[in-house]
Amino acid sequence: MVSSKTEGTMGAFSDDISVSTKGFGDVVDITPDVQEVVGRSGIKSGIACVAAPGSTAGITTIEFEDGAVRDLKEALDRLAPMKQHYHHDARWGDGNGFAHVRSALLGASRSFPVQHGRLVLGTWQQVVLIDFDNRPRDRRIVVQVVGD
Amino acid sequence: MVSSKTEGTMGAFSDDISVSTKGFGDVVDITPDVQEVVGRSGIKSGIACVAAPGSTAGITTIEFEDGAVRDLKEALDRLAPMKQHYHHDARWGDGNGFAHVRSALLGASRSFPVQHGRLVLGTWQQVVLIDFDNRPRDRRIVVQVVGD
Amino acid sequence: MVSSKTEGTMGAFSDDISVSTKGFGDVVDITPDVQEVVGRSGIKSGIACVAAPGSTAGITTIEFEDGAVRDLKEALDRLAPMKQHYHHDARWGDGNGFAHVRSALLGASRSFPVQHGRLVLGTWQQVVLIDFDNRPRDRRIVVQVVGD
Q: More exposed terminus of chain C, fewer Cβ within 10 Å: N or C?
C-alpha cells in the first residue's frame, strides 16, 4: 500500500476525547473515539499522536477482550505492585506511587500511522487508555493528526 | 543541527515492509528496510512512524548483536513468562497470552526523527520488530513519514 | 480544544539539546529545553518527536520529584538488575548490558502533541531523559516538530 508524496494539502488537526474511568488500572477502549477524530480531521495519510496528559495514565494497544486485559493488569501489578513502599507516597501521602511508576514505564502517549483516513491497526488491536490512579478520574485524551 | 522551518513542500508518504519471522520472541533488524522507505519518500526533515499492526508484536530499538538481543529476550521472559497461566488462553485457547501482554507493555509502534532524509539513530542503535506470537508469522510493517 | 485543519503553512523544524548526565540511571528533566525548541519552531499545532539517539538511554514522562524518580529507578532495577549476568557483557566486556535492556524496554524516543506552540503535558508531567549507561555521558537529544 503506497501513498505517494503529495504536496500543498498538508494540515494539522486536533481534538480532545473525554473519558470517565474507575482508576486502579481501569483499561478503556478508546479506538472508536480516536478513529472518529481522525476521520473528522480530513487527513487521509499521516501520523496520529494519542496522548493522556498527566503522570498517572498510559496509552497502549491490546486485543481488548477480558482475558488479555486481565493478564495485562496482572503483569502491571508485578511490575509496580500496589502494596509496596513508594518514596512518592512517603513524601506526598497521595498513595499513588505505583501509578506514577506504571505510567513512566508504559508511556502516556503513542503514535500511529494514518492511511485512507483511518488509524492503521490490526483486526484485533485496540487503542486503550489505562488509568493507573487510585481513584476514578475524568480524563482528557488528546488526538493530534498531521498529514495530508 | 538546525533545519529551519520550511513551508509549501510538506508531504506524507507511506509504504509497507514484509518480514517473515520465527515467532516466539524472534527479534528482526528492520533498519535497512525502514531507511529505504524513508529515503524513497523524498522527505528530508520530519517524523517517521514505524508500526507493526496487530496485538502480538512490538517495535523498539536495541544494539542488534546476539548478546544484547538474548538479554532482552530473557527480560521479556521475566516480564511475561511463557509458562504461566493466562486468562486469554483459558478463554480462547490460542496459547499466546504472553504475546499479548508483551506487545501491550512494549508497544507496537514507535516514531523517530528524520533528518537529511534518514532516521536519526545512534551508531549502534537498530530498529527491530519483535514477534511475540507462538508461531512463525508473515508480518506487514507500516512506515509512515511526514515532513518536508 | 479544536484546531481546525489548516493548509499551506505547514513546516518541519528540528534542533538538538545537549545534556550532561551522571549515567547509572540518572533522570534529567528536559522539559524546559524541549518547550524552548518547540516555541522556536513557530509551529502552533502538530507533533513533536523527542529522541535520544543511542542504545543505552530512554525518553519518558514522570512527575519529576525525588520520590517518584527514586521509585522509577527501583522499578527499572527490578526489570533489569545491574548485578546479573548479561550475554552482552560476556561478549563485549563493556559492563552495560543492563543499560541496553532497559533502553529497549522503555524506548529511546517518544512523541507528543503540540498545541498553541507548546507540548501538551499534564501540570505535574515532565519529559525526562534517563541515561542507563554505566558512566557519565554527554547526550544529544533531538527534538523534531512537524505541523503548522
A: N
Write the single-letter amino acid at A105.
L
The domain total for chain B is 1
Is residue A128 included in any domain, yes or no? yes
**Residue A31: which domain range?**
20-147
Is A12's CB within 8 Å of C122's CB? no
What are the strands of the beta sheet with A57-62, ordered from one edge? Answer: A26-29, A126-131, A57-62
Task: Return the residue matching grid coordinates 475524568.
Answer: A138
Instruction: Quote the ipTM score.
Output: 0.95
**If DSSP codes are grouped into helix, strand and coil, which group holds residue C16?**
strand
C contact set with B (CB within 8 A) = 8-16, 41-43, 47, 49, 51, 53-55, 79-80, 86-92, 97, 100-101, 103-105, 107-111, 142-144, 146
In a domain, B13, yes or no: no
| Inter-residue contact C81 to C2 (CB < 8 Å) | no
Instruction: List, for residues B31-80, the tens digit of each pLDDT value.
Output: 999 999 999 999 999 999 999 999 999 999 999 999 999 999 999 999 99
CATH of residue C96's domain is 2.60.120.460
Pairing of strands B109-115, A118-119: unpaired
B133 located within any domain = yes
Q: What is the C-alpha separation between C119 and A98, in angstroms, rounded?
A: 25
CB pairs under 8 A between B and C: 141
For the whole model, what pTM was predicted? 0.96
Taking only the tens place, the pLDDT of each residue in A52-71 is 999 999 999 999 999 999 99
Phi, psi of B133 (to 5 degrees): -65, 165
Residue of A nearest to C45 (CA): A12
Distance CA A55, CA A123 (A): 30
From chain B, the residues in CB contact with A67 under 8 A are 86-92, 97
**Nearest-angstrom CA–CA distance, B31 and A113:** 18
To which H or E segment does residue C11 belong? Answer: strand C11-21
Which residues in chain A are closer than 8 Å to C60, comparing Cβ atoms? Answer: 104-105, 107
Residue with cell 558512566: C135
Give a yes or no: residue C2 inside a domain: no
Report CB contact under 8 Å: B113, C15: no
Count how many pairs of residues, chain A against chain C, have C-beta atoms within 8 Å. 142
Sign of CA dihedral B94, B98, B102, B105: positive
